[in-house]
Design a protein that fits this description.
It is built from 1 helix and 14 strands. With 286 residues, it is mainly beta. Strand 8 and strand 9 form a beta hairpin. It has a domain of 184 residues. Strands 1-2-3-6-7-8-9-10-11-12-13-14 form a 12-stranded antiparallel beta barrel.
């Protein structure tokens, strides 16, 4: 996997200079690397925003274009002090098509005739469990299990009609005003051309968030998946995205913005994201 094929050393150096304070609301936007901390017992986190990426490629359908996802919605519900249920997705993905590959595995399944296509986003259902709490001398550990549902269809070119499953180990540690988070796990992706095959990938993420002022954080991450198999099935290719951005927290709400830089041919050449997160108590403790 080519981690720096488009950005080079300068972009990676910028990323490593960015960071995060201990997350008052457990992560996430504009990051996607999962913090082991949960949202909290009886609390709900609701986030919404949009993503825009240029030169996004769908290897299964052969479509390439500029992708708008709006609104991207995430809901996290605290199930006790150590567990959290998550639901992520969106009702509208629109790809402005700039290129087609007629030799793609499912190009003949497309019903798209114009210069754009749209569909719903795949919904992701997840459960996060904090296994070991963080202390002054030890990082916190957690696990996360997530399933991506095949809501987007291959006829419109934005989906694969396969179920994906990811299991990850989560690690997080705060040092001074800086928050470090790392993820590592296994991702299983079904082969859209053969229901009896699957791709097994290594999923990873590393993020830093640095408090620079009251309520203000600079954030950055590397997040992706790597396929080390000698034979790679359609849809199971390696991916890697670098994100840098900032977020401002005031009270129970938080505004975020970030830039995205893809480092493989299938990721956005460049993109941006903007969103808002709100946390509230939905259950009163007895």
């Amino acid at each position: 996997m080519q981690l720096v094929s488009r950005l080079g050393r300068a972009a990676l150096s910028t990323l490593l200079l960015m960071g995060a304070a201990a997350p008052a609301m457990a992560q996430q936007r504009p990051l996607v690397t999962e913090d082991p901390e949960t949202v909290g017992n009886g609390r709900m986190l609701v986030e919404a925003g949009f993503d825009y990426g240029r030169d996004v490629t769908y290897p299964v359908s052969g479509l390439t274009g500029n992708l708008l996802r709006v609104p991207m919605v995430g809901i996290s519900v605290g199930l006790g002090s150590y567990a959290e249920f998550q639901l992520d997705g969106g009702p509208f993905d629109r790809l402005s098509i700039t290129d087609r590959d007629p030799k793609a595995p499912l190009a003949n399944e497309l019903t798209v005739t114009g210069n754009s296509t749209h569909d719903v986003d795949d919904i992701v259902l997840g459960t996060k469990i904090r296994v070991v709490p963080e202390t002054a001398t030890r990082p916190g550990f957690g696990v996360r299990f997530a399933t991506r549902l095949p809501n987007a269809g291959n006829e419109k070119g934005l989906g694969t009609d396969t179920f994906d499953f990811t299991s990850s180990i989560l690690v997080g540690k705060t040092t001074g005003s800086t928050r470090y988070v790392a993820n590592a796990g296994l991702m299983i992706i079904g082969d859209p051309t053969d229901g009896n095959r699957q791709s097994d990938l290594f999923a990873y993420g590393f993020s830093i968030a640095q408090a620079v002022h009251q309520g203000v954080e600079l954030v950055g991450e590397i997040n992706g998946r790597a396929n080390f198999a000698s034979t790679k099935h359609p849809g199971g290719e390696s991916r890697n995205v670098i994100r840098v951005g900032a977020r401002y927290t005031r009270g129970a709400g938080r505004i975020d913005a970030g830039l995205l830089f893809g480092t493989t041919a299938r990721d956005p050449g460049i993109g941006f994201t903007l969103g808002y997160t709100y946390v509230f108590d939905f259950l009163k403790n007895p």
